[in-house]
Prior knowledge:
The chain is mostly helical. The chain has a domain of 30 residues. Helices cover 70% and strands 0% of the residues.
Amino acid sequence: MKAILTVHNFASDLVTTIWTPAFVAIFLAIIAYALWPRNKAAFDEAARLPLREE
């Protein structure tokens, strides 16, 4: 039986071959940015913002 190319099959293949690895790479880049030692001071300052009394 020959496989029929449908919109669902095409969309599923597109998501698994292109978008999933792209979103994993973006997620890992965000994690690396958040954990990079140079950014610690800025994130610590942002964490104290709600506790400031001005």
